[in-house]
Write a structure and sequence with these properties.
There is one protein chain. The chain has 360 residues and is an alpha/beta fold. 53% of the residues lie in helices and 9% in strands. The chain has a 5-stranded mixed sheet with strand order 3-2-1-4-5, with helices on both faces. A hairpin with a 2-residue loop joins strand 2 (191-199) and strand 3. The longest helix has 37 residues, at 323-359. The chain is elongated and about 105 Å long. It starts with 8 loop residues before the first helix and ends with a helix. This is Transposase Tc1-like domain-containing protein. Residues 1-50 form the Sleeping Beauty transposase HTH domain.
Length: 360
């Protein structure tokens, strides 16, 4: 039975006052234009509680007990990759039968939501220390310092790459309608490599890299694309060049080339591609290119350059302005890692002492 509309306090007061005056249910209902059953329910509630208030409406009881919710939260906290089906099975083993939808509602009520896991480089202890050192050294740098940085990277663009994850709205039996499908070919249909750069003032040139890039090709790429981009973006004097620790970037000949051109490069920690804000622009580029649906590699190259030039300078400026958030996050993660390492080390020491004591 559906819930009925609650009557206002004024209407309930009138019903109770008329009942106190000796009127019957039918008379009160006729005068106020209410149902007899409504009048009776309000009077019975008044007689029981002696006050005219609306009691809370709890609705259906919760299927999962507080202990069950605690178990779910404990499992998800320890293993964030746990699926809803796994949680359904865990509760079933404990004697509670629920659906996956109920599990999802419970997790959302507890402040959690399902998100795609971020892909980050596999880090060793030396990489973590290097990233933390970089973050601590530059945490207090002003936005003006980051405005002077020209960020660069290389990225691979697949012909049928990001399209494979697109969703469509369709009817039940229209799965293979051509407009509801995405064409695929083996090995992604080919791909091209692009090298580009950007600063807080906008995007620089995007250059297609043909073949395998070595040190000589990289220095040619810098001369033909980096320097013109810096001039076009009006970087001015004292600007800083950022590139990762790829061997061709760190080659002695490359360092001498940069020194000869009076270009200062930013000391960058290893395995830190996820801390480079140009990764956000590369993702934006892939989304824009996917919407254009290129048909071949030449079309892909043309669309990539067109969409790269269309990226608004405001987006570039926001990425640079918010870069301090990345550094703050890195410091927090580094601190947690140090605490965890310290705890594990103390635990191993205690276990060793315990074993020695047992042997004695």
């Amino acid at each position: 039975m559906a819930k009925t509309k609650e009557r206002s306090k004024d209407v309930r007061d009138k019903i109770v006052d008329r009942h106190k005056a000796g009127m019957g249910y039918k008379t009160i209902a006729k005068q106020l234009g209410e149902k007899v059953t409504t009048v009776g329910a309000i009077i019975r509630k008044w007689k029981k509680h002696k006050i005219i208030v609306n009691l809370p409406r709890p609705g259906a009881p919760c299927k999962i007990s507080s202990c069950g919710v605690a178990m779910i939260m404990r499992t998800v906290s320890n293993q964030p990759r746990t699926t809803r089906e796994d949680l359904v099975n865990d509760l079933k083993a404990a004697g509670t039968i629920v659906t996956k939808k109920t599990i999802g509602n419970t997790l959302r009520h507890e402040g959690l939501k399902s998100c795609s896991a971020r892909k980050v480089p596999l880090l060793k202890k030396a990489h973590i220390h290097g990233r933390l050192k970089f973050a601590n050294e530059h945490l207090n740098d002003s936005v003006d310092n980051w405005v002077k940085v020209l960020w660069s990277d290389e990225t691979k663009m697949d012909l049928f790459g990001i399209n494979s994850t697109r969703r469509v709205w369709r009817r039940r039996n229209a799965a293979y309608d051509p407009k509801n499908t995405i064409p695929t070919v083996k090995h992604g249909g080919g791909n091209i490599m692009h090298g580009g750069c950007f600063s807080a003032k906008g995007t620089g040139q995007l250059h297609r890299i043909k073949g395998t890039m070595d040190g000589a090709m990289y220095r040619q790429f810098l001369g033909e694309n980096l320097l013109p981009s810096a001039r076009a973006l009006k970087m001015g004097r004292g600007w800083v060049f950022q590139h990762d620790n790829d061997p061709k970037h760190m080659a002695k000949a490359t360092k001498e080339w940069l020194k000869k051109k009076h270009i200062k490069d930013l000391e960058w920690p290893s395995q830190s591609s996820d801390r480079n804000p140009i990764e956000n622009l590369c993702r934006e580029l892939k989304v824009r290119v996917a919407k254009r649906q290129p048909r071949n590699l030449n079309d892909l190259e043309k669309i990539c350059k067109e969409e790269w030039d269309k990226i608004p300078p405001v987006m570039c400026a926001n990425l640079v302005a918010n870069y301090k958030k990345h550094l703050t996050s890195e410091c927090q993660q580094g601190f947690c890692h140090q605490v965890l390492s310290h705890v594990l080390q103390r635990g191993q020491i205690l276990i060793s002492l315990f074993k020695i004591q047992i042997n004695l």
